[in-house]
Amino acid sequence: MTMEMVIFGLSWLLIGIGSVFVVIGAVGIVRMPDVFTRLHAASLIETLGGGALLLGLMLQAGFTLVTLKLAMILLLFVFTAPVATHAVAQAALHQEVMPKLASDRRPHQAGGKSPEAR
Amino acid sequence: MRTVSLGIVLFLFWLTLSGHYTNFLLSVGVGCVVLCLLLVHRMGLIDSEGHPIAMLPRTLTYYPWLAWEIVKSSLGVAKIILSPSLPISPTMTLIKARQKTSVGIATFGNCITLTPGTLTTGVADDEVTVHALTRDGANDIQAGRLNQRVAKFEGSA
Q1: B49 in a domain, yes or no?
Q2: pLDDT band of B157, cuts 50, 70, 90
Q3: Where in the sequence is the domain holding B34, given as residue range(s)?
Q4: B28 lies in the same domain as B93
Q5: Whether residue B35 is found in the same domain as residue B61
Q6: Looking at the structure, do residues B39 and B62 belong to the same domain, yes or no?
Q7: Into how many domains does chain A fold?
Q8: Closest-CA residue in chain A for B118?
Q9: Which of A93, A101, B102, B117 has the fewest CB atoms within 10 Å, counting from its CB?
Q10: Tens of pLDDT along A35-84?
Q11: pLDDT at A115 > cutoff 50
């Protein structure tokens, strides 16, 4: 009985944390100034937001096949989320959308892509 | 050896998604797995890159570490988003990856992108271009703690 209560409470705590982080990430997407910084806010949603929500749902489901399927979804997230983020960043760079930087520590390329070399 | 292990993984995947354990559906599952293995074998995709079983035991310690890193950096990014002055200082850096195989470098890139606050924007040979949300984030990546940990996960350090 008490064990059930603990798991129930923990599951709702995780679902709550996940929801809060999804909202914070959404606020971040609105507040950030350019594509690349917005991607940082979006990665907050897909890692801690989605992860905590899925863990909470797993605790709700208990030792069933549903939990295994949820774990599979989490694994899919871990592998696809960074690839999608990387694809968006690459697409932006290909369109020559340059990130607004406070400092650039890359050595300047020979192609003259950096604003100083042009 | 690698083919058998891939077959076992595929069949477990079938069992998880199906949830019906009648003789007919199980034999259909076996048929599908064999068909997939034949196709993948013909395409020559079963190698250390397509199915890296050697890394499997090390995932047990790598994933909990990665989860903890994600939680730590998520809290940092959430704090930045919620503070009224939005204290960001976007920085781009170039890092030399210490991993030797392409699987290792891909894992390092994914690890950087997965932790909020840092983002891989490009990979050329063993040089990874990283966009960090703050100067501190860039310093942390350049210090090479993640780099070392992923190299250990890959098995080269």
Answers
A1: no
A2: low
A3: 2-43
A4: no
A5: no
A6: no
A7: 1
A8: A40
A9: B102
A10: 888 888 888 888 889 999 999 999 988 888 889 899 999 989 888 988 89
A11: no
Residues of A in contact with B77 (CB under 8 A): 28, 40-41, 44
Q: What is the mean pLDDT of chain B?
A: 86
Q: In angstroms, how far is CA B59 from the centroid of its own chain?
A: 10
The reply to whether B28 and B88 lie within a common domain is no
Ramachandran assignment for B19, one of left (phi > 0), alpha (psi -120 to 50 degrees), beta (any other): left
Higher pLDDT, B82 or B54: B82
Say if residue B113 is in the same domain as residue B145: yes
CB atoms within 10 A of CB B87: 10
As to burial, measured by CB atoms within 10 angstroms (0-12 exposed, 13-18 middle, 19+ buried), residue B38 is exposed
Question: CA-CA distance, A18 to B70, in Å (whole number)?
Answer: 13
B131, B91: one domain:
yes
Asked whether this complex has an ipTM greater than 0.95, the answer is no
Query: What distances in angstroms separate CA B76 from CA A1, A17, A50, A80, B133, one per listed residue?
Result: 37, 15, 17, 23, 10
Q: How many independent structural domains does chain B possess?
A: 2
Question: For residue A24, what pLDDT band results from cuts at 50, 70 and 90?
Answer: very high
Closest C-alpha among B142, B53, B51, B49 to residue B97: B142
Q: Which residues of B touch A29 (CB under 8 A)?
A: none
Does the pTM of the predicted model rise above 0.90?
no
User: Residue A85: which domain range?
Assistant: 2-94
Is residue A55 domain-resident?
yes
B48 is a domain residue: no
pLDDT recorded at residue A118: 31
